[in-house]
Amino acid sequence: MYILDFTIFKYYTDAQNDKKGLAGAEFELYKPNEAGTGRNDDAKINIVDEKNGVYRQATTEEAAAEGFTSAKI
């Protein structure tokens, strides 16, 4: 089992070129394609929300889980 700690910050860039957080942004995670130039559409990473900002990869039985939503900024 691998344990990773990382932050995902979904944002847009405003007219002053400042990054503004997107509260409630929905997204999905995918493994990269073999060339490393984009995503592998057949390799979605399903995530389970354990609460309190803790997520884990879904088991096979939980794989129907959809993307997750970013926290309020």
Explain the overall architecture.
This protein is mainly beta. The chain is 0% helix and 41% strand. The chain contains no helices and 8 strands. A hairpin with a 2-residue loop joins β6 and β7 (54-57). The N and C termini lie far apart (31 Å). The model has no long low-confidence stretch (mean pLDDT 79).
Tell me how many strands there are. 8
Cα-based radius of gyration, to the nearest Å: 14 Å
Q: Give the amount of beta strand, in percent.
A: 35-45%
Number of helices: 0
Order of helices and strands: EEEEEEEE
The low-confidence runs, each spanning 5 or more residues with pLDDT under 50, are none
**What share of residues is helical?**
under 10%
As an assembly, this protein is: single chain
Average pLDDT reading: 79
Q: What is the overall silhouette?
A: extended
Brief characterization of the structure:
With 73 residues, this protein is an all-beta fold. The chain has no helices and 8 strands. Helix content is 0%, strand content 41%.
